[in-house]
Amino acid sequence: MVILVTGGAGFIGSHIVDKLCEKGYTVRVFDLAEPHRSDVEWVKGDLLNMDDLFKAFKDVEYVYHLAAIADVNIALTRPELCLQVNEVGTLNLLRAAHSFEVTRVILASTTWVYNRAEGIVTEETPIPPPDHLYTASKIGQENLLIAWNKHFGIPYTILRFDIPYGERMRANMAIAIFVKRAINRESITIYGDGEQGRCFINISDLSDGCIAAMHNNGKNQIVNLAGKEFITINRIIKELKKTFGELKVNYEPPRPGDFKGVVVSIDKAKKLFGWEPKVEFSEGLKRYIESVMAPSSKK
Predict the structure, then answer these.
(1) pLDDT per residue over 3-31, tens digit each?
(2) Which domains are assigned to the chain?
């Protein structure tokens, strides 16, 4: 079967492409950027161009939809682009999926949709009105898939990711920033008491969960994919000190609107797919540090 990965040249998408190739699937990447590997088909295209999408969908059975404005800062500075790409782009993708009668669309969503919830969140936790444009666009994507299924019958799976980390992650993500500063012996600034955090998930575990979601049990389901532990910012610093020794850390007052984080339940993913994370945070962080330092160590 042909599996299409929109955004397959990006951080998460490229790792999903790797896992699919390992399992012997025929993979097609739809992205404006060239994929990181040459043994997959690349359709260079834009979600806002229906001709591009129709070229990409020939013989496709499953679609992993990751192409999006994922940088929250871009979402704030260019809100019209965020809404166009994330929502209109998803609508265009659904039109193409309907025309080519794909088996299922698997959407990369986010645990940001839980917003200011507290404690433990599950897929049944009520979704409050969003307080961020990025969050609004992701809720919009989810609702489009659900409504399209009701009208036209295209099956879906919605995967809500907590914050991933690992090789090829974007340089502006928190862990990447901290590691770079630690390598350069620069001070690290933490806003608040450092007890805020996320259920960070290693990219290897996340991509495994995405592949597992093709299981029949995933049809028309919303499923969380997150790490096993709630990892605080202070814990990240503690782990970094194991590699780099003492670090200069500055604590500043919390920024308005900063989110303390929630514990994300992954019980549904365990039940439906038999999936759970395997990489402990300390090991995953060590692997990431090694991947960052490897080029300089070879000089």
Answers:
(1) 999 999 999 999 999 999 999 999 999 99
(2) 2-164+200-225 (3.40.50.720), 170-198+228-262+279-297 (3.90.25.10)
